[in-house]
Amino acid sequence: MQGLFHHCILQIALDTPLNAIFDYRWHCDAAEQPQVGQLALVPFGRREVMGLIVGIAAETDVPVDKLKDALAVRSQLGPLSAQWLALAGFAADYYQRPLGEVALPGLPKNLRVLTTVALDRALKKLAKLDAPHDGTPLNMPALNPSQQEAADAIGGATGFKPTLLYGVTGSGKTEVYLQSCAQVLEREPDAQILILVPEINLTPQLEGNIRARFPGVMLATLHSSLSEGERMLHWLAAHQGKARIVLGTRLAILASLPNLKLIVIDEEHDPSYKQQEGLRYSARDLAVWRAWQLGIPIVLGSATPSLESWHHAQSGRYRKLELRERAVKNAVLPQVKLLDMERDKPKDGLTSQLIAAIRQRMERGEQSLLFLNRRGYAPVICCESCGWISECTRCTSFMVLHRPEHRLRCHHCSLEMRIPRHCPTCGNVDLQPLGRGTQRVEEGLQMLFPEARVLRIDADSTRKKGSAQEAFDTVHRGEVDILIGTQMVAKGHDFKNLTLVGILNPDTALFSQDYRASERLFAQLMQVAGRAGRAAQTEGGSVSEVLIQTRYPQHPLYGAVVNHDYDHFASALLEEREQAALPPYLYQALLRAEAPELATAIEFLTIARDCVEHPGITINDPIPMSMTRVHNVDRAQLLVESASRPMLQAFLREWLLTLREMKSRVKWSLEVDPLDI
Ligand code: ADP
Ligand code: ZN
Ligand code: ZN
């Protein structure tokens, strides 16, 4: 019997911080050879874990007595393709993480469990589903000439072609995506298309549109609110090529898509494309790499493109297509006006002009949206007799008053307590809320407009699964007169009956130390302004308006918003960035360290700074992070910069080898292309 079996060595990537590939022995049966890209269950320490086969060899350097056997190969699952492995490999290299830490968390949890029950069930379910192949679109509206030009350019493109679709809010970018998709699906019977949106709340609107247009193809969604069972099924549908359109949030960029032919990134400027913990990747940047790898077109759409993408468009690396007007006939961009809060002092957070404008909308049966990017009732409570304020005991921040819930909450470490009855230092019972969040504005609105149907949408009001969707539906059905919300309401939504947007307190971002703050504020204001006046103006209806309450009406940023002038604003910002040598003219990485004492974190970073030679690289001094303490841990950072991306990458690789060797007890992490520094 001897000759029938032989051993082979499976080289396996595991989800562990150890930067290594692990060798296991496997009895290779000639009838059933394992393949690279398959999953294998292996013993690791005292556990059994799922790993990914990245190589198969005849021999290993691991001594025989140390070599363990792999326990099972998941042969019922087709292997991940070489291209998918290369994508994971690129992300691992670029973001300086072990391959296994990138590849395995990118897979559904149910694929990584010890038993195959969930997998077998999902495969059985999927086998029963037909994979309809009719890419014929239904009910496609006639496009206007600029939309048509864009759809033809994107849908007809072959090869790697990044396109920046720069279209004002309401210009019908969605329609361009859908008709580009239609062209690709009709041309290539097996083609798959990946569409990314920045926020989970934007998936239902687009999902509805896609299903209505393409009833003959399978659509799979991938986002964080799917159950594990759904996620497994949808992931497999994509992996097997059955799902022709995959719609998802940033995590979907790592979906296995064997026939990917087009990538769409909607609202490409949105910071949500950047994962802010663990593997801190940019789904947008990975998408561009993936399109390059496969030699396929990619479209990045936005009314306020990121400066990175704008820069690429200006330098000719990306092709720029423009939609300058709103798509709906007689819908025009809203008039933006600045309300000087020094002259018109606000009452309950609202100036008299804004109140009058809301009243007018009420009388005409139109909707108003008030935007305030601060949830809770008041950002802090204080004692007027001794000066005590509600600081968090664990963070460099304040406890936010949540009045309806009768709680104080820290938004950074989630510490919670009942509202104190009296001042903890002097005993004064008259504690006052300071400043204003969405709950307080909601309360003020109810007093000012007792007859109005007021709805608040923010992270607090939408904690329950499905409640955000329900809230947005209520607005779409016209059952809300005044909507108050945080950035959750600012993005992407196509509210038809909304003719007024009020922006309550944007000034704080004007004076931020973060060099990206003005880019972000500008985009946010343009986006929220873009929710107004999306339908045709009716006779006797209001001109749509955006009213910005500010103490600095002369500020050039507001001037640009008033003029809807992204072009000049972006070009001016880019010029400033070039002169100040900031991204996108410079490449950055950030080493962060955490310790119970700030000094320990700084000391680690100082050693890190001095431990290697670094020609062509600037390493700044270690500094405390702007929010230094979170959950009783002090945090510091070290910024590394270079004018050359390859040089920075080469340096980081070397540097990390040294840092891993240091075996410091300080918890540290590296972020490449950080957004917040
Ligand atoms: P954007 O994503 O650019 O902000 P949307 O794609 O949401 O804009 O489109 C705004 C509105 O214009 C939607 O109500 C959409 O149905 C409508 N629309 C888009 N294209 C056309 C068209 N060619 N004819 C008529 N209406 C259109
Ligand atoms: Zn006091
Ligand atoms: Zn806290």
From TrEMBL:
GO terms for cellular component: primosome complex. Its EC number is 5.6.2.4. It holds the Pfam family DEAD. It is an enzyme of class 5 (isomerase). PANTHER family: PRIMOSOMAL PROTEIN N. Component of the replication restart primosome. This is Replication restart protein PriA. It comes from Duganella vulcania. The gene is priA.
